[in-house]
From TrEMBL:
Its main location: membrane. It is a multi-pass membrane protein. Pfam families: DcuC (PF03606). It is found in: Cell membrane. InterPro entries: C4_dicarb_anaerob_car-like (IPR018385), DASS-Related_Transporters (IPR051679). It comes from Bhargavaea beijingensis. The chain crosses the membrane at residues 18-36, 84-101, 121-139, 145-163, 170-189, 195-219, 263-280, 286-308, 320-339, 351-371, 449-469. Keywords: Cell membrane, Membrane, Transmembrane, Transmembrane helix. This is Basic amino acid antiporter YfcC.
Protein backbone atom coordinates (compact mmCIF):
# COMPACT_ATOMS: atom_id res chain seq x y z
CA UNK A 1 0.00 0.00 0.00
CA UNK A 2 1.30 3.49 -0.87
CA UNK A 3 2.27 5.81 1.92
CA UNK A 4 0.16 8.89 2.59
CA UNK A 5 0.28 12.09 4.65
CA UNK A 6 -0.34 10.18 7.89
CA UNK A 7 2.80 8.13 7.22
CA UNK A 8 4.74 11.34 6.74
CA UNK A 9 3.48 12.58 10.10
CA UNK A 10 4.50 9.30 11.78
CA UNK A 11 8.01 9.69 10.42
CA UNK A 12 8.24 13.13 11.99
CA UNK A 13 7.45 11.94 15.51
CA UNK A 14 10.99 10.79 16.23
CA UNK A 15 12.28 14.30 15.50
CA UNK A 16 12.38 16.59 18.58
CA UNK A 17 10.45 19.84 18.43
CA UNK A 18 12.60 22.82 17.40
CA UNK A 19 12.00 24.54 20.75
CA UNK A 20 12.95 21.34 22.55
CA UNK A 21 16.20 21.28 20.57
CA UNK A 22 16.94 24.89 21.53
CA UNK A 23 16.22 24.28 25.23
CA UNK A 24 18.42 21.18 25.01
CA UNK A 25 21.23 23.30 23.55
CA UNK A 26 20.71 25.80 26.39
CA UNK A 27 21.10 23.01 28.94
CA UNK A 28 24.24 21.78 27.19
CA UNK A 29 25.62 25.33 27.07
CA UNK A 30 25.01 25.74 30.81
CA UNK A 31 26.69 22.39 31.53
CA UNK A 32 29.65 23.34 29.35
CA UNK A 33 30.13 26.49 31.43
CA UNK A 34 31.38 24.11 34.15
CA UNK A 35 33.73 22.30 31.76
CA UNK A 36 35.01 24.66 29.06
CA UNK A 37 37.63 27.13 30.32
CA UNK A 38 36.24 30.66 30.58
CA UNK A 39 38.01 33.19 28.40
CA UNK A 40 37.64 36.42 26.51
CA UNK A 41 38.95 38.52 23.65
CA UNK A 42 39.45 42.25 23.70
CA UNK A 43 36.86 44.07 21.60
CA UNK A 44 37.02 47.56 20.15
CA UNK A 45 34.71 49.88 18.25
CA UNK A 46 35.74 50.24 14.63
CA UNK A 47 33.74 52.01 11.91
CA UNK A 48 30.61 51.78 14.05
CA UNK A 49 30.99 48.04 14.64
CA UNK A 50 32.22 46.03 17.60
CA UNK A 51 35.10 43.82 16.42
CA UNK A 52 37.29 41.20 18.05
CA UNK A 53 41.02 41.98 18.38
CA UNK A 54 42.97 38.94 17.05
CA UNK A 55 45.56 37.43 19.37
CA UNK A 56 44.07 38.87 22.57
CA UNK A 57 42.30 35.73 23.84
CA UNK A 58 43.08 34.86 27.46
CA UNK A 59 41.55 32.54 30.07
CA UNK A 60 39.73 34.04 33.06
CA UNK A 61 38.11 32.75 36.25
CA UNK A 62 35.40 30.11 35.68
CA UNK A 63 31.84 31.49 35.73
CA UNK A 64 29.39 28.54 35.65
CA UNK A 65 25.70 29.16 34.91
CA UNK A 66 23.29 27.84 37.56
CA UNK A 67 19.87 26.18 37.21
CA UNK A 68 17.77 29.33 37.79
CA UNK A 69 20.08 31.44 35.58
CA UNK A 70 19.46 28.91 32.81
CA UNK A 71 15.75 29.77 32.73
CA UNK A 72 16.32 33.48 33.33
CA UNK A 73 18.26 33.44 30.08
CA UNK A 74 15.02 32.93 28.09
CA UNK A 75 13.33 36.24 29.01
CA UNK A 76 16.74 37.91 28.85
CA UNK A 77 17.20 36.52 25.35
CA UNK A 78 13.75 37.75 24.36
CA UNK A 79 14.62 41.21 25.65
CA UNK A 80 17.97 41.38 23.90
CA UNK A 81 16.44 40.21 20.61
CA UNK A 82 13.29 42.33 20.97
CA UNK A 83 14.04 44.51 17.95
CA UNK A 84 14.26 41.43 15.72
CA UNK A 85 11.35 39.62 17.38
CA UNK A 86 8.95 42.53 16.92
CA UNK A 87 10.30 43.16 13.42
CA UNK A 88 9.30 39.61 12.45
CA UNK A 89 5.91 39.91 14.15
CA UNK A 90 4.99 43.24 12.55
CA UNK A 91 6.27 42.39 9.06
CA UNK A 92 4.49 39.03 9.29
CA UNK A 93 1.30 40.85 10.22
CA UNK A 94 1.66 43.19 7.25
CA UNK A 95 2.07 40.30 4.84
CA UNK A 96 -0.90 38.60 6.50
CA UNK A 97 -3.02 41.56 5.39
CA UNK A 98 -1.64 41.38 1.85
CA UNK A 99 -2.43 37.65 1.66
CA UNK A 100 -5.95 38.23 3.00
CA UNK A 101 -6.73 40.62 0.11
CA UNK A 102 -6.41 37.62 -2.21
CA UNK A 103 -4.08 39.56 -4.52
CA UNK A 104 -1.28 37.01 -4.46
CA UNK A 105 -3.61 34.05 -5.10
CA UNK A 106 -5.52 35.88 -7.82
CA UNK A 107 -2.32 37.09 -9.51
CA UNK A 108 -0.76 33.65 -9.65
CA UNK A 109 -4.05 32.06 -10.68
CA UNK A 110 -4.30 34.49 -13.59
CA UNK A 111 -0.79 33.78 -14.80
CA UNK A 112 -1.32 30.01 -14.55
CA UNK A 113 -4.61 30.27 -16.45
CA UNK A 114 -2.97 32.20 -19.29
CA UNK A 115 -0.28 29.55 -19.60
CA UNK A 116 -2.54 26.49 -19.51
CA UNK A 117 -1.99 25.79 -23.23
CA UNK A 118 1.70 26.67 -23.23
CA UNK A 119 3.18 23.97 -21.05
CA UNK A 120 6.76 24.75 -22.13
CA UNK A 121 6.46 28.16 -20.48
CA UNK A 122 4.46 27.05 -17.45
CA UNK A 123 7.34 25.66 -15.41
CA UNK A 124 9.90 28.49 -15.87
CA UNK A 125 7.31 31.27 -15.49
CA UNK A 126 5.74 29.72 -12.39
CA UNK A 127 9.12 29.03 -10.79
CA UNK A 128 10.29 32.57 -11.58
CA UNK A 129 7.20 34.12 -9.98
CA UNK A 130 7.57 32.11 -6.79
CA UNK A 131 11.33 32.72 -6.73
CA UNK A 132 10.72 36.49 -6.73
CA UNK A 133 8.36 36.06 -3.78
CA UNK A 134 10.91 33.87 -1.99
CA UNK A 135 13.70 36.38 -2.60
CA UNK A 136 11.77 39.48 -1.56
CA UNK A 137 9.26 38.51 1.14
CA UNK A 138 10.78 35.20 2.22
CA UNK A 139 7.82 33.12 0.99
CA UNK A 140 8.17 29.57 2.27
CA UNK A 141 5.30 28.01 4.26
CA UNK A 142 2.96 30.60 2.70
CA UNK A 143 3.32 28.92 -0.71
CA UNK A 144 1.80 25.66 0.58
CA UNK A 145 -1.67 26.92 -0.37
CA UNK A 146 -0.60 27.07 -4.04
CA UNK A 147 0.55 23.45 -4.22
CA UNK A 148 -2.92 22.04 -5.07
CA UNK A 149 -3.19 24.49 -7.98
CA UNK A 150 0.27 23.55 -9.21
CA UNK A 151 -0.56 19.85 -9.04
CA UNK A 152 -3.91 20.22 -10.83
CA UNK A 153 -2.33 22.27 -13.64
CA UNK A 154 0.63 19.90 -13.97
CA UNK A 155 -1.61 16.84 -14.23
CA UNK A 156 -3.84 18.53 -16.79
CA UNK A 157 -0.76 19.14 -18.94
CA UNK A 158 0.46 15.55 -18.72
CA UNK A 159 2.91 15.91 -15.84
CA UNK A 160 2.61 14.55 -12.28
CA UNK A 161 2.12 15.81 -8.72
CA UNK A 162 5.88 15.97 -8.15
CA UNK A 163 6.17 18.44 -11.04
CA UNK A 164 3.28 20.55 -9.75
CA UNK A 165 4.70 20.61 -6.24
CA UNK A 166 8.22 21.41 -7.47
CA UNK A 167 7.04 24.30 -9.66
CA UNK A 168 5.80 26.04 -6.53
CA UNK A 169 8.14 24.85 -3.79
CA UNK A 170 11.43 24.77 -5.70
CA UNK A 171 10.70 28.14 -7.27
CA UNK A 172 10.21 29.67 -3.82
CA UNK A 173 13.25 27.77 -2.54
CA UNK A 174 15.49 29.15 -5.31
CA UNK A 175 14.45 32.68 -4.41
CA UNK A 176 14.77 32.00 -0.68
CA UNK A 177 18.33 30.79 -1.26
CA UNK A 178 19.09 33.86 -3.36
CA UNK A 179 17.56 36.01 -0.60
CA UNK A 180 18.36 39.38 -2.14
CA UNK A 181 15.74 41.19 -0.05
CA UNK A 182 14.54 38.47 2.32
CA UNK A 183 13.80 40.35 5.56
CA UNK A 184 13.55 37.18 7.66
CA UNK A 185 16.99 35.72 6.84
CA UNK A 186 19.43 38.07 5.13
CA UNK A 187 17.98 41.16 6.81
CA UNK A 188 18.26 39.65 10.30
CA UNK A 189 21.69 38.09 9.71
CA UNK A 190 23.11 41.35 8.40
CA UNK A 191 21.68 43.32 11.30
CA UNK A 192 23.37 40.92 13.76
CA UNK A 193 26.61 41.15 11.77
CA UNK A 194 26.36 44.95 11.91
CA UNK A 195 26.59 45.44 8.16
CA UNK A 196 24.16 47.45 5.99
CA UNK A 197 20.81 45.73 5.41
CA UNK A 198 20.59 44.12 1.95
CA UNK A 199 24.19 45.06 1.12
CA UNK A 200 25.89 42.74 -1.37
CA UNK A 201 22.62 42.55 -3.30
CA UNK A 202 24.30 42.38 -6.72
CA UNK A 203 26.40 39.36 -5.78
CA UNK A 204 23.35 37.65 -4.28
CA UNK A 205 21.35 38.38 -7.42
CA UNK A 206 24.07 36.79 -9.56
CA UNK A 207 24.08 33.62 -7.45
CA UNK A 208 20.26 33.61 -7.46
CA UNK A 209 20.25 33.36 -11.25
CA UNK A 210 22.32 30.18 -11.04
CA UNK A 211 20.05 28.70 -8.33
CA UNK A 212 16.93 29.50 -10.35
CA UNK A 213 18.41 28.45 -13.69
CA UNK A 214 19.55 25.07 -12.40
CA UNK A 215 16.22 24.55 -10.62
CA UNK A 216 14.19 25.30 -13.76
CA UNK A 217 16.38 23.02 -15.87
CA UNK A 218 16.09 20.19 -13.34
CA UNK A 219 12.30 20.37 -12.99
CA UNK A 220 11.72 20.78 -16.74
CA UNK A 221 13.98 17.80 -17.45
CA UNK A 222 12.04 15.62 -15.02
CA UNK A 223 8.67 16.87 -16.32
CA UNK A 224 9.64 16.12 -19.94
CA UNK A 225 10.59 12.56 -19.00
CA UNK A 226 7.28 12.03 -17.22
CA UNK A 227 5.24 13.42 -20.10
CA UNK A 228 7.08 11.22 -22.60
CA UNK A 229 6.80 8.15 -20.37
CA UNK A 230 4.50 8.38 -17.30
CA UNK A 231 6.17 5.33 -15.77
CA UNK A 232 9.26 7.51 -15.19
CA UNK A 233 7.37 9.34 -12.44
CA UNK A 234 8.67 8.54 -8.96
CA UNK A 235 5.02 8.39 -7.85
CA UNK A 236 3.62 6.55 -10.87
CA UNK A 237 1.48 4.23 -8.76
CA UNK A 238 -0.08 7.19 -6.93
CA UNK A 239 -0.71 9.03 -10.19
CA UNK A 240 -2.63 6.06 -11.54
CA UNK A 241 -5.05 6.37 -8.63
CA UNK A 242 -5.37 10.14 -8.73
CA UNK A 243 -8.53 11.74 -10.09
CA UNK A 244 -8.06 14.16 -12.97
CA UNK A 245 -9.04 17.71 -12.06
CA UNK A 246 -9.59 20.45 -14.59
CA UNK A 247 -7.39 23.54 -14.60
CA UNK A 248 -10.45 25.77 -14.50
CA UNK A 249 -11.89 24.15 -11.41
CA UNK A 250 -8.55 24.44 -9.63
CA UNK A 251 -8.05 28.06 -10.55
CA UNK A 252 -11.66 28.87 -9.84
CA UNK A 253 -11.16 28.35 -6.13
CA UNK A 254 -9.66 31.82 -5.97
CA UNK A 255 -11.15 35.18 -6.74
CA UNK A 256 -10.56 36.49 -10.26
CA UNK A 257 -7.80 39.11 -10.57
CA UNK A 258 -9.26 42.63 -10.50
CA UNK A 259 -8.24 46.25 -10.23
CA UNK A 260 -8.01 46.15 -6.44
CA UNK A 261 -5.53 43.30 -6.65
CA UNK A 262 -3.51 45.30 -9.15
CA UNK A 263 -3.33 48.26 -6.75
CA UNK A 264 -2.18 45.95 -3.93
CA UNK A 265 0.63 44.67 -6.16
CA UNK A 266 1.47 48.27 -7.03
CA UNK A 267 1.69 49.18 -3.33
CA UNK A 268 3.89 46.15 -2.68
CA UNK A 269 6.24 46.88 -5.57
CA UNK A 270 6.47 50.57 -4.68
CA UNK A 271 7.04 49.78 -1.01
CA UNK A 272 9.82 47.30 -1.72
CA UNK A 273 11.48 49.80 -4.06
CA UNK A 274 11.32 52.52 -1.41
CA UNK A 275 12.79 50.10 1.13
CA UNK A 276 15.76 49.37 -1.12
CA UNK A 277 16.32 53.09 -1.72
CA UNK A 278 15.91 53.86 1.98
CA UNK A 279 18.47 51.24 2.98
CA UNK A 280 21.12 52.45 0.58
CA UNK A 281 20.45 56.21 0.56
CA UNK A 282 18.82 57.02 3.91
CA UNK A 283 20.55 54.45 6.15
CA UNK A 284 17.28 52.76 6.99
CA UNK A 285 17.42 49.90 9.47
CA UNK A 286 14.92 47.54 11.11
CA UNK A 287 12.76 50.29 12.63
CA UNK A 288 12.30 52.14 9.34
CA UNK A 289 11.78 48.93 7.35
CA UNK A 290 9.15 47.77 9.82
CA UNK A 291 7.30 51.08 9.57
CA UNK A 292 7.40 50.88 5.77
CA UNK A 293 6.00 47.32 5.75
CA UNK A 294 3.25 48.40 8.14
CA UNK A 295 2.20 51.18 5.78
CA UNK A 296 2.20 48.76 2.82
CA UNK A 297 0.13 46.21 4.72
CA UNK A 298 -2.46 48.60 6.14
CA UNK A 299 -2.88 50.45 2.83
CA UNK A 300 -3.31 47.12 1.04
CA UNK A 301 -6.01 46.10 3.50
CA UNK A 302 -7.99 49.29 2.94
CA UNK A 303 -7.63 49.14 -0.85
CA UNK A 304 -8.46 45.43 -0.77
CA UNK A 305 -11.76 46.29 0.94
CA UNK A 306 -11.02 44.36 4.11
CA UNK A 307 -12.27 47.28 6.16
CA UNK A 308 -10.69 48.57 9.37
CA UNK A 309 -11.63 45.57 11.47
CA UNK A 310 -10.91 43.06 8.72
CA UNK A 311 -7.50 44.61 8.09
CA UNK A 312 -6.45 44.29 11.71
CA UNK A 313 -7.93 40.81 12.01
CA UNK A 314 -5.77 39.78 9.05
CA UNK A 315 -2.84 41.58 10.67
CA UNK A 316 -3.25 39.55 13.86
CA UNK A 317 -3.66 36.34 11.87
CA UNK A 318 -0.43 37.15 10.02
CA UNK A 319 1.40 37.54 13.31
CA UNK A 320 -0.02 34.22 14.51
CA UNK A 321 1.39 32.47 11.44
CA UNK A 322 4.85 33.93 12.02
CA UNK A 323 4.84 33.50 15.83
CA UNK A 324 6.86 30.27 15.69
CA UNK A 325 9.72 31.96 13.86
CA UNK A 326 9.53 35.17 15.89
CA UNK A 327 9.63 33.70 19.39
CA UNK A 328 12.30 31.21 18.40
CA UNK A 329 14.69 34.12 17.91
CA UNK A 330 14.42 34.93 21.64
CA UNK A 331 15.07 31.29 22.58
CA UNK A 332 18.05 31.19 20.24
CA UNK A 333 19.42 34.40 21.76
CA UNK A 334 19.10 32.75 25.20
CA UNK A 335 21.81 30.30 24.13
CA UNK A 336 24.11 33.24 23.50
CA UNK A 337 23.13 34.79 26.86
CA UNK A 338 24.16 31.59 28.67
CA UNK A 339 27.46 31.35 26.78
CA UNK A 340 28.20 35.00 27.52
CA UNK A 341 27.34 34.63 31.22
CA UNK A 342 29.57 31.57 31.40
CA UNK A 343 32.29 33.42 29.46
CA UNK A 344 32.75 30.44 27.15
CA UNK A 345 31.65 31.96 23.84
CA UNK A 346 35.09 33.44 23.15
CA UNK A 347 36.68 30.10 23.99
CA UNK A 348 34.43 28.45 21.40
CA UNK A 349 35.23 31.16 18.85
CA UNK A 350 38.95 30.78 19.49
CA UNK A 351 38.71 26.98 18.99
CA UNK A 352 36.65 27.34 15.80
CA UNK A 353 39.09 29.92 14.48
CA UNK A 354 41.91 27.46 14.99
CA UNK A 355 39.99 24.63 13.32
CA UNK A 356 38.62 26.55 10.34
CA UNK A 357 41.74 28.71 10.16
CA UNK A 358 43.82 25.59 9.49
CA UNK A 359 42.08 25.34 6.12
CA UNK A 360 43.31 27.28 3.09
CA UNK A 361 41.95 30.85 3.13
CA UNK A 362 39.52 30.17 0.28
CA UNK A 363 38.05 27.25 2.24
CA UNK A 364 37.45 29.13 5.51
CA UNK A 365 34.05 30.16 4.20
CA UNK A 366 33.41 26.54 3.19
CA UNK A 367 34.04 25.47 6.79
CA UNK A 368 31.47 28.01 8.02
CA UNK A 369 29.09 26.81 5.33
CA UNK A 370 29.32 23.18 6.45
CA UNK A 371 28.63 24.21 10.05
CA UNK A 372 25.51 26.11 8.94
CA UNK A 373 24.24 23.19 6.82
CA UNK A 374 24.53 20.86 9.82
CA UNK A 375 22.93 23.41 12.15
CA UNK A 376 19.98 23.82 9.79
CA UNK A 377 18.84 20.24 10.41
CA UNK A 378 18.35 21.05 14.10
CA UNK A 379 17.23 24.69 13.73
CA UNK A 380 15.41 24.94 10.37
CA UNK A 381 13.96 28.36 11.22
CA UNK A 382 15.95 30.91 9.21
CA UNK A 383 15.55 33.70 11.75
CA UNK A 384 16.26 31.30 14.62
CA UNK A 385 19.42 29.99 12.99
CA UNK A 386 20.61 33.53 12.31
CA UNK A 387 20.10 34.46 15.95
CA UNK A 388 21.89 31.29 17.07
CA UNK A 389 24.92 31.22 14.78
CA UNK A 390 25.63 34.75 13.56
CA UNK A 391 26.78 36.05 16.98
CA UNK A 392 29.49 33.36 16.77
CA UNK A 393 30.22 33.54 13.04
CA UNK A 394 30.58 37.33 13.01
CA UNK A 395 33.57 37.59 15.38
CA UNK A 396 34.94 34.38 13.84
CA UNK A 397 34.99 36.10 10.45
CA UNK A 398 36.89 39.00 12.04
CA UNK A 399 39.49 36.63 13.46
CA UNK A 400 39.96 34.88 10.12
CA UNK A 401 40.32 38.18 8.27
CA UNK A 402 37.14 37.41 6.33
CA UNK A 403 34.50 39.90 5.26
CA UNK A 404 31.40 39.69 7.46
CA UNK A 405 29.34 39.64 4.28
CA UNK A 406 30.86 36.26 3.42
CA UNK A 407 29.87 34.91 6.85
CA UNK A 408 26.30 36.05 6.16
CA UNK A 409 26.41 34.30 2.77
CA UNK A 410 27.62 31.09 4.44
CA UNK A 411 24.66 31.31 6.85
CA UNK A 412 22.21 32.20 4.09
CA UNK A 413 23.08 29.26 1.84
CA UNK A 414 23.54 26.83 4.73
CA UNK A 415 20.12 27.75 6.09
CA UNK A 416 18.11 27.79 2.86
CA UNK A 417 19.16 24.98 0.56
CA UNK A 418 18.64 21.87 2.67
CA UNK A 419 15.15 23.01 3.70
CA UNK A 420 14.01 21.24 0.52
CA UNK A 421 15.10 17.82 1.79
CA UNK A 422 15.46 17.69 5.58
CA UNK A 423 12.48 16.19 7.48
CA UNK A 424 12.68 18.93 10.14
CA UNK A 425 11.61 21.56 7.59
CA UNK A 426 8.04 22.64 8.36
CA UNK A 427 7.48 24.01 4.86
CA UNK A 428 8.67 20.82 3.17
CA UNK A 429 6.53 18.54 5.31
CA UNK A 430 3.60 20.87 4.67
CA UNK A 431 4.09 20.61 0.90
CA UNK A 432 4.24 16.83 1.04
CA UNK A 433 1.23 16.53 3.35
CA UNK A 434 -0.92 18.69 1.05
CA UNK A 435 0.34 16.91 -2.08
CA UNK A 436 0.08 13.40 -0.61
CA UNK A 437 3.66 12.64 -1.64
CA UNK A 438 5.59 10.19 0.58
CA UNK A 439 8.77 11.72 2.00
CA UNK A 440 11.08 9.01 0.62
CA UNK A 441 9.66 9.49 -2.90
CA UNK A 442 10.32 13.22 -2.70
CA UNK A 443 13.91 12.58 -1.58
CA UNK A 444 14.38 10.29 -4.59
CA UNK A 445 13.29 13.16 -6.83
CA UNK A 446 14.97 16.13 -5.16
CA UNK A 447 18.36 14.94 -3.87
CA UNK A 448 20.23 15.71 -7.09
CA UNK A 449 18.71 19.20 -7.23
CA UNK A 450 19.71 19.90 -3.62
CA UNK A 451 23.22 18.57 -4.29
CA UNK A 452 23.51 20.84 -7.31
CA UNK A 453 22.42 23.86 -5.28
CA UNK A 454 24.87 22.99 -2.49
CA UNK A 455 27.71 22.92 -5.02
CA UNK A 456 26.59 26.20 -6.63
CA UNK A 457 26.57 27.83 -3.17
CA UNK A 458 30.02 26.46 -2.39
CA UNK A 459 31.42 27.91 -5.61
CA UNK A 460 29.66 31.21 -4.90
CA UNK A 461 31.31 31.39 -1.46
CA UNK A 462 34.77 30.75 -2.86
CA UNK A 463 34.17 33.45 -5.50
CA UNK A 464 32.90 35.84 -2.81
CA UNK A 465 36.12 35.34 -0.82
CA UNK A 466 38.27 35.92 -3.89
CA UNK A 467 36.33 39.05 -4.85
CA UNK A 468 36.24 40.36 -1.29
CA UNK A 469 32.48 40.89 -1.38
CA UNK A 470 31.55 43.28 1.42
Amino acid sequence: MANGPSTIENKKRWIPHTYAILVGIMVIAAALSYIIPAGEFERVEQDGRTVVVPGTYQEIEQQPVGFFELFKAIPQGMTEASNIVFYIFLVGGAFGVIRETGAIEAGIGRVVHKLENREKLLIPVTMFIFSVLGATIGMSEESIIFVPIGIAVARALGFDAITGTAMVSMGAAAGFAGGMMNPFTVGIAQSIAEIPIFSGILFRASAYLFFLGFGIWFVMRYASKVKADPTKSVIYDLEQKAKKESVRNAAGEFEAFNGRHGIVFLFLAAGLSINVYGVFEWDWFLTELTASFLIIGLASGLVGKLGINGTFEAFVDGMKVIAFGAIIVGFARAILVIMEQGSIIDTVINAMAGLIGSLPAALNAAGMYVVQVITNFFIPSGSGQAATTMPIMTPLADLLGMERQVAVLAYQYGDAITNSIIPTSASLMGYLAVAGIPYERWVKFVWKLVLGWLLIALVALVVAVQLGVS
